[in-house]
TrEMBL record:
The keyword Glycoprotein applies. It comes from the Eukaryota. Keywords: Glycoprotein, Membrane, Transmembrane, Transmembrane helix. One of its GO terms (cellular component) is membrane. This is CTL-like protein 2. Pfam families: Choline_transpo. The chain crosses the membrane at residues 34-55, 304-325, 332-352, 385-406, 427-455, 550-574, 595-618, 696-718, 730-751. It is found in: Membrane. InterPro entries: Choline_transptr-like. Belongs to the CTL (choline transporter-like) family. It is a multi-pass membrane protein. It comes from Drosophila kikkawai. One of its GO terms (molecular function) is transmembrane transporter activity.
Length: 801
């Protein structure tokens, strides 16, 4: 018995002739897997109810409570229970895109109310009394403010950044004090905050011959806003400074422009420092690394337009490449195969030569813990080159044998690749269909994250008694004593902020000379701090429900996209005369999937969601068991993780083909998966060959387009220095290469779906039809020529095939 006969007996007989089968059915379809669709609808309804409950009972303010410089949450932790708002010493330092990653560097303190007036030490220190200045002063701690007895001590505290140097009338937004501009506030804004050219010209219009910063500030303070406006109006005929805006508008505009420009410059500097620190790990010399980081960031900022143009050209090139693949797929594939074989031969020659050289050249091990020393030691070891030469030689032999044995099937793969190119070119809208999936993915992510945040905020807050850290990262050792209801409070144990604040005090500070012995000083270095929100059991299950909902919905969106594309390309294949492909084929496939096969999509995505959830649970268990360091449990978990990874990979492959069969025949998921599996197993060698060959071809195509984009960008930068001058042309080139690879991956993802769909259609075509007038082959002439088949059709029926 031959191998093909054994496969047929094991996986079913080939598909029989069916006089009523002419390709994907359109009008006589019925809804598939309706129970699973109802289950999915009920699940979404439950998810919606959980979302509504979470929004109603959750409070994101619990998760967005600001923390001061001592890591105390305003309005929650001990010591700041009645101080719900966060005040920034220098708010302009927080206008930085890197703040979410690095944090705002300015000192921050919790206050009861945001400042309702303006304070500028440099301009008010000589005009206001000490009592007025002291009342406006905002310091890190109340103790620091209480110890200030005169203006000299106040100046020292401000110079040491213990108190704010200046602030503007502010309003609370999300419990954070932000600037509130008004015409009166503009009078007190010092000149060093107004850096735009126009604001400086307006100040120079003031009477007198003031030229220095101090004189300008003094004149701005001396004149009222009405007087300044009148003086500027008197200069209305001057060509130097025409005024067309209200003073408050000018103030707000000029300040915002100056701050934003300055912060963007600081952003470049901080990005340069981050890049420099990263480069320092691989580059000798900290100063050189910092300079290199600055140059890289500067090149990125200056070349963003070149990068965008290169990405757009890559997109156009991808479309043109797909159209040309119908004629050039065979030369490209064979050239790629022989190129790989030649490259492996060159690799064998080079590795053997390096092995012989280092075997005859004794070397001394380079001692060092950096990456450069490690790489150098590895490259100077003759065993490294021996193992590499063996590996490269084995790869060469295996690929060469596969090419010799599978040469006929490679020709089939080439022909199907051409067919896929024709299908994509004929229905070009499929290339942009993934944009629809991206929008749905983003919406699903936003919904799941929002529900998760609201659910996470439901519950009682738990607190722990902790010690603060010094600037050097050392733990403080404050003698904090607790009495009464708080007598059992210990470091690291649970506590109540109100009880802690009433019954815990600093024993040493309370008995010092500065304070009276009867006066108790609250603990400042030890606090009852917020730890976490303890969710009720039902909320934990709701969070679990939300995670599973996101997995199911994300797989559902991906499956829906795959089935729509499969239905589109299947309709193209089973149209005998390709010029007769219906208009709006993609739209019809979309409606067909939405009206009839959402249940099948829900079924397949449910299986993958369960498998992925099991993998996540295993990862969670593994993270919890790491502290026990048990080799047996690690081995078991490793095997289980590997098994479920393989299972998920197989299920993705099976689901993809099940969706294709469902798009063709309109059967339910189980029947489609069974038919697809049997059809594939009856043509196992063809499937393996096609899958690997097409993947290899697509990878080479992406590599070709990516390399072309990178080389073109680099060539343009080198030969056009007058247009743009950069420190390193490789910086924008690298960004273009990464972006080009991502763009081409999206395009060839659709291409891969087209080839997979056409391949299953091709297998069905071979088993169902015989080339007779009643059952002609739907495949292209090239495929029929490779397989030795032909259609015995009348001349009139052959036209347009």
């Amino acid at each position: 018995m031959t191998e093909s006969e054994e496969l047929m007996n094991k996986y079913g007989e080939p598909l029989r002739y069916d006089r009523n089968f002419t390709g994907p059915r359109q009008r006589d379809r019925s809804c598939t897997d309706v129970p699973c669709l109802l289950l999915f609808a009920l699940f979404l309804a439950g998810w919606g109810f959980i979302a509504q409950y979470a929004i109603k009972h959750g409070d994101l303010n619990k998760l967005m409570v600001p923390s001061d410089s001592f890591n105390r949450k305003c309005g929650i932790d001990s010591g700041v229970l009645n101080k719900k708002n966060l005040f920034f010493f220098n708010l302009e330092q927080c206008i930085d895109p890197l703040v979410p990653l690095t944090g705002c560097p300015t000192p921050q303190v919790c206050v009861e109310k945001c400042p309702s007036q303006t304070f500028v030490w440099d301009t008010m220190k000589n005009s206001l009394s000490f009592e007025d200045l002291h009342s406006r002063l905002i310091c890190l701690t109340e103790e620091t403010k209480a110890q200030i007895r005169n203006k000299e001590q106040m100046n020292n505290a401000i110079q040491n950044n213990l108190c704010a140097r200046w602030y503007i009338k502010s309003a609370a937004f999300l419990n954070r004090c932000l600037f509130e501009f008004s015409p009166q506030v503009c009078e007190y804004i010092p000149a060093f905050l107004l850096r735009s050219g126009r604001s400086r010209r307006e100040l120079t219009l003031l009477p007198g011959n003031a030229t220095t910063e101090v004189e300008l500030e003094a004149k701005a303070m001396a004149l009222s806003m009405a007087e300044a406006q009148s003086l500027v109006a008197q200069q209305g005929n001057s060509k130097q400074s025409p005024v067309e805006e209200e003073p408050a508008t000018q103030c707000r505009r000029t300040l915002n422009e100056a701050v934003i420009k300055e912060k963007m410059m600081q952003t470049d500097t901080r990005l340069a420092k981050m890049v420099g620190n990263l480069v320092a790990h691989f580059y000798n010399g900290t100063h050189d690394a910092q300079r290199l980081g600055e140059e890289i960031v500067e090149d990125l900022v200056n070349s963003w337009s070149i990068v965008l143009v290169a990405c757009f050209c890559t997109l156009i090139a991808s479309l043109i490449f797909i159209a040309l693949m119908r004629w050039l797929s065979a030369p490209i594939l064979w050239f790629s195969i022989f190129g790989v074989l030649i490259g492996l031969l060159v690799g064998i020659y080079y590795t053997v030569r390096q092995y012989i050289f280092w075997e005859k050249t004794p070397t001394v091990t380079v001692h060092g813990l950096n990456l450069h020393s490690t790489v150098k030691n590895v490259l100077q070891n003759q065993k490294t080159w021996l193992y590499l030469s063996i590996f490269v030689a084995v790869c060469f032999v295996v690929i060469l044998l596969l090419v010799i044995v599978l040469r006929k099937r490679i020709r089939i793969a080439i022909a199907l690749t051409k067919e896929g190119s024709k299908a994509v070119s004929s229905v070009i809208s499929t290339v942009f269909f993934p944009i629809f999936s991206w929008v749905l993915f983003i919406a699903a992510i936003a919904f799941a994250v929002g529900v998760g945040l609201y659910l996470g905020s439901i519950g009682q807050a738990s607190f722990r008694m902790v010690r603060q850290l010094t600037a050097d990262g050392e733990v403080t050792n404050e003698p904090c004593v607790c009495e009464g209801p708080a007598i059992n409070y210990t470091i690291g144990g649970s506590c109540n902020p109100e009880v802690f604040q009433q019954h815990c005090y600093n024993q040493q500070a309370s008995t010092s000379g500065f304070f009276q012995q009867s006066q108790r000083v609250a603990c400042s270095k030890t606090t009852c701090s917020f730890d976490t929100i303890e969710n009720p059991p039902l909320i934990k299950w709701a969070i679990f429900y939300n995670v599973f909902g996101f997995l199911w919905l994300s797989f559902f969106i991906s499956a829906f996209s795959d089935m729509v594309l499969a239905a589109t390309f299947a309709r193209w294949y089973w149209t005998f005369k390709k010029r007769d492909v219906p208009y709006f084929t993609l739209t019809r496939a979309f409606c067909q999937t939405a009206f009839y096969h959402l249940g099948t999509v829900a079924f397949g995505s449910l299986i993958l969601a369960i498998c992925r959830l099991i993998r996540l649970v295993l990862e969670y268990i593994d993270s919890k068991l790491k502290k026990y360091d048990n080799s047996v449990t690690r081995a078991i978990l490793c095997c289980m993780r590997c098994f479920f990874w393989l299972l998920e990979t197989f299920l993705k492959f099976l689901n993809r083909n099940a969706y294709i069969m469902c798009a063709i025949h309109g059967k339910n998921f189980c029947s489609s998966a069974k038919d697809a599996f049997n059809l594939i197993m009856r043509n196992f060698l063809r499937v393996v060959t096609l899958d690997k060959v097409t993947d290899f071809l697509f990878f080479l195509s992406k590599l070709l387009l990516t390399a072309g984009a990178g080389v073109s960008t680099y060539y343009f930068l080198v030969n056009n220095p007058a247009i743009i001058q950069l420190h390193h042309n490789a910086v924008p080139t690298t960004v273009v290469v990464i972006a080009a690879f991502l763009i081409t991956s999206v395009f060839f993802g659709v291409y891969s779906t087209a080839v997979d769909t056409l391949f299953l259609c091709f297998l069905e075509d071979c088993e169902r039809n015989d080339g007779s007038p009643e059952k002609p082959f739907f495949m292209s002439k090239q495929l029929m020529k490779i397989l030795g088949k032909k259609n015995n059709l009348p001349p009139r029926q052959r036209r347009g095939k």
